[in-house]
Amino acid sequence: MALASFITVVVIRKNANSHANRLIREAIEKAEMLKKEKIVQAKEEILQFKLKNEQEILEKNNNLLKLETRLKQREQQVNQRSEELQKRQKEFEAKSSVVNEKLEWVSQKEAELEKALKQKTEMLEKISGISREEARNQLIESMKEEARNEAIAYIKDIMDEAKITAQNEAKKIVIETIQRTAVENAIENTVSVFNIESDEIKGRIIGREGRNIRTLEALTGVEIIIDDSPDAILLSSFDPIRREIARLSLQKLITDGRIHPARIEEVVAKTEKQIEQEIIEVGKRTVVELGIHGMHPELIRLVGKMKYRSSYGQNLLHHSKEVARLCANMAAELGLNAQKAKRAGLLHDIGKVAENESDLPHAILGMNLAEKYKEKPEVCNAIGSHHEEIEMNTLLAPIVQVCDAISGARPGARREVVEAYMQRLHKLEELALSYPGVVKTFAIQAGRELRVIVGADKVTDDEANRISYELSRKIQEEMTYPGQIKITVIRETRVVNYAK
To answer: Is residue 203 part of a domain?
Structure first.
């Protein structure tokens, strides 16, 4: 058994060795075959890469040949152009010599002509009796005068054409604006009349040794004038609010029947509060009526105070409301912001009711108040520039200025001081008389028209036209006036003979 097992093991080992040898031979053969395949594949790739490189080199050589060909062509072209330039340079040098010869000949001729012209000029000066400079100056002055007349005529034609095209539309806008705005005119005075029933009440108002009337005057700041009129007492003050406080206080005292210093103090204090509340209510009603929103309460209060102020006899609140409506209508017609225009129109005279005393013009003071209470820059500029104290830099400013003039210039709207009116007429006539050739001047139509009569022997038609134009410019620059002034220059020739 042991021998048999040993033999079996030997046989198995022999078979295993033979199998292993066979596997090794097969692996070696496969490796040889794989090696040969890889070598063949590498040779093929090397061959393809070589072919590809040779093709690229060939293409680059072809491109180089093409570039070389182009360079040769360019070189030939450059050589040709260089030859052409050299040829042209030679031609130019030849022509330049000819031109120089001609220039020399022209210079000689010019010298000869100048000499001949000088001789003829000297001959003409001897014949005419004036020098060349004098003749030139006369010609220049003549041409200046002719140019000036033509320029004035041209300006007149342009202005006439502009008036034809623009005046109708402007009149339409202004007239429609005025027609759409209608407020009553109130005339305020510096004196209020308080009616009383009897002399007994007058004596009670005066009080023992005049103590009641002195107390009332001291508390209200109003001068109470008691004269021989049996049924009236005059309340005199330049402050309408004080006059109104005094009038209402007197009315309450007489109705109550108790008239003594302590009661007067109590009634005046209550009346002041009542007037202050009424001022605020008037301001609120005004801004609501005009549809203005977001205005500072202090500005609303100042608007209410306008009710008790007047300007040249025109109630300031009515005037400001009228200007506000005019501004809104005109701004709407011109395609501008109507709300801002209305706001600027209402506040344009707000400086007249400012409580602090100031040396500033009311327009500047009003602008400062508007800036203080956060109004828009356009509104502030329109307020400050409506009397041209500052420069206008918005389109609202001229609208406010024009509407202020429209409201104040209407017949019956304001009462001008006679002296100022006469001074304006006298100034108009003086300005016209300052021009040479003016014989007489007449300011007519309440200063709305100026007629200038010139001497026919001293002033030509063109000069009359120039006087009219220059006088209108001068009046605009030197005078302040409502509306517009028509300047009419009259030049007539009168021939007079006598039959004997």
So the answer is: yes
